[in-house]
Amino acid sequence: MLDATLSTTGAQGRRHYDGEFILEVDGVRKEFPGVVALDNVQLKIRPGSVHALMGENGAGKSTLMKIIAGVYNPDRGEVRFAGEKLVIRTPIDALNCGIAMIHQELNLMNTMTVAENVWIRREPKGAFGLIDHARMGTMTAELFASLNIHLDPLAIVGDLTVAQKQMIEIAKAVSYNSDVLIMDEPTSAITETEVEHLFAIIRDLRARGVGIVYITHKMNEIFEIADELTVFRDGKYISTVPASEVTRDDIIRMMVGREITEMFPKVDCPIGDVILDVQNLSLPGVFDNISFKLRKGEILGVAGLVGSGRSNVAEALFGVHPAETGDIWIDGEHVVMTSPQVAMDHGLAFLTEDRKETGCFLVLDCLENMQMALITRDKVNGAGFVQQAEVTRLVQEYSAKLRVKTPNLAERVENLSGGNQQKLLIARWLLTNPRILILDEPTRGIDVGAKSEIHRLITALAGQGVAVLMISSELPEVLGMSDRIMVMHEGRVSGFLDRAEATQVRVMELAAK
Amino acid sequence: MQDTYTTGAEIKAAPRRLPPEVNILFVLVGIALVFEILGWIFQGQSFLMSIDRLKIMILQVSVIGIISVGVTQVIIAGGIDLSSGSVVGAVAMFAMSFAQVSTYARAVYPDLTDLPAIVPIALGLMAGALVGLINGALIAYAKIPPFIATLGTMVTARGFAKWYTKGQPISFPTDDFAFIGKGMMPVAIFLAVAAIFHVAMKYTRYGKFTYAIGANQQAARVSGINVEHHLIKVYVVAATLAALAGMVVAARGQTAQAGMGLAYELDAIAMAVIGGVSLTGGRGSILGTMIGMVIFGVIISGFTFLRLDAYYQEMIKGVIIVAAVVADVYRQKKRTKKS
Ligand SMILES: Nc1ncnc2c1ncn2[C@@H]1O[C@H](COP(=O)(O)OP(=O)(O)OP(=O)(O)O)[C@@H](O)[C@H]1O
Ligand SMILES: [Mg+2]
């Protein structure tokens, strides 16, 4: 038995482990009130390989990773590391043993600098044991240089984009020099360029003998990076296979237990009058001179690299961070978009990119989370009482439609899996019956089955005349779902592409221009 | 939108699980039983079997209970209100100056005749609301941390109370005004206030928004809640309830002094915390706070009953408050870690 607390800091490295598996999970069970999250699962990771872990939303992937990383304790079963039984009680134990993890949700301190975030708990000490900030800065710069990340170590994390924060998480995890690196959906919020970048880092780590557990809902990534893959379904182990021996459909069948017919069920529907007309919208230093028109029934996809200002434009349209100059016309009416209330009064809805920061009320239950936007302007009587019976019925209808997996609606949202939280937020906005729907990474963290379900919903809404503005870092999604694509580059619109002329290459050309 | 999507299984709206307040209720029962047993051992009599004692116990805590109902809302919204104790003092003075009978020399307005009780009460509530408005505006618009903003009004309101009569107490209110403090009136007022806000927090938009803001202010804003307006409402409610409490104490003692309500804000916060209201916001309930208030009352009257020295009482009160917070932190941890 390896006593975690006796080992030194994470950097000792057991790099030359000769056994077959660096990490073995056997017979693990974990129950939460009302759900069996994991039931007798196994997972075996070879050193120097990338092992993909697949499964639908709520299949138990994150739960198992949190058990390995010491966040939860299993009810039964064991975890072996380099052949020895491991007793991990806290995340620090896990790090000391050589297991690092990138969590599904961002865990950075927004008010602190990039460097402070990376080296937290391991700050280099100088005279009198005080933190040596200069060295911490150079250490960060060196780390970033080795990973080819271009970020200012002294920037305040809160000012960065979600994708940049994700890159910091990756760099931080790599800096532990661990033997096992767990990545829980690291690519859900970054664009192709960063994904390529991340894969380069992963290949390098693999060559250095690190065992990597990689969780994703993006199928194409599996074939690009994974050596082996394990599938879970409803908390149960299904099977482990070499990635080269299966097809995409095989994986989906193992995950879902049924066939998923079409991926992007986009139906062409009549496109009506202009409903949103944006002219010369600018916010100095963020985006510049954005003009576009959105029509009823149209799905306008927005593509671009990280930092191209896509999300900022969406925030300006919804009044979260208003633009400084420019005009917004909705149905021919000039609207000064000063707050989300104004936006909602004009029939807008806005699914934000970062579900933890600006989406979920983590300590509230599913019902409250889903109904909150609706009751700001509807389903409340004159005395301020919420018409709960009716609202609950609507909420139940939408949770069934979106297949939200939860024991009941009184469950706290923090206990839901990431993908299910996302579904819940989509439901929140669909419940408001918007005329203009702004979606920022709508299928972030959502499994293949549910994804095509959500795409079907979006198309159906467009068919009813709802105008959709959809930001997505997943090119196949943008290409598959949009009637038209607006590509952004460094805060400007670099071009529009029609559905017929849009290809991966042309979008990338415009995005990198 | 019809049958194009496959429909998942029906999801139950609520489980058959006990509400979280039940835990706190158990604590209350446990503590009461401890005092009962200690009572038989050390005093040779029952602690609980005395209606008079129970009456006094409830009376003692209901004034602070009124404040606590407001403070609970502030804490659920993610804030804190330190000004309530001073509002008690300031409004007691202010309202009493309009409630005095004219047969005595009036402290502030010598020319006034007897006013109907509604006048001082309305003026007092308005004064409280004004303090709440200032608190709310400082916090919501000037973005001053609640701790600092309400610390400022706490000091200022206490200063006002002393300046108002240059330190002289104000006594002899009209019978009508004194009525709100008579007999079990404070308990009745508390119950009414608690019932109103229990319903408001659970079933109205006001309550839902309060929880939402405390749980995640950013998400609340993006969901279309006017966070600034709402925070002002919550602080106005809290300060108005503190004002009401101030008038009840003044009416009960038939006198107002500048030092009244000292440290009441801390007891009110303690009641809420003991009742399961989380200082990180978004969690807790009026019902929980009510139970917390009774726990507080049982402990105080229990110690008095056991003839424990007042000094010990204060020290133990402090320990209990900390223990309540520790218990809250532990509960939160347990939910996720071990389940
Ligand atoms: N702390 C918790 N308390 C209660 N239930 C939980 C808790 N954590 C997870 N669960 C439940 O366990 C199940 C598995 O969740 P998990 O987060 O492991 O799913 P996942 O496979 O990572 O899904 P996703 O792809 O959506 O991220 C879900 O049904 C979830 O609701
Ligand atoms: Mg997960």
From TrEMBL, chain A:
The keyword Iron-sulfur does not apply. Keywords: ATP-binding, Cell inner membrane, Cell membrane, Membrane, Nucleotide-binding, Repeat, Sugar transport, Translocase, Transport. Residues 23-259, 269-509 form the ABC transporter domain. InterPro entries: AAA+_ATPase, ABC_carbohydrate_import_ATPase, ABC_transporter-like_ATP-bd, ABC_transporter-like_CS, P-loop_NTPase. It catalyses: D-galactose(out) + ATP + H2O = D-galactose(in) + ADP + phosphate + H(+). One of its GO terms (molecular function) is ATP binding. It is a peripheral membrane protein. Its EC number is 7.5.2.11. The keyword Electron transport does not apply. Belongs to the ABC transporter superfamily. This is Ribose/galactose/methyl galactoside import ATP-binding protein.
TrEMBL record, chain B:
It comes from Rhodobacter viridis. The chain crosses the membrane at residues 24-42, 54-80, 86-105, 117-142, 177-200, 231-250, 286-305. It is a multi-pass membrane protein. GO terms for cellular component: plasma membrane. InterPro entries: ABC_transp_permease. One of its GO terms (molecular function) is transmembrane transporter activity. It is found in: Cell membrane. This is Monosaccharide ABC transporter membrane protein (CUT2 family). PANTHER family: ABC TRANSPORTER PERMEASE PROTEIN YPHD-RELATED-RELATED (PTHR32196).
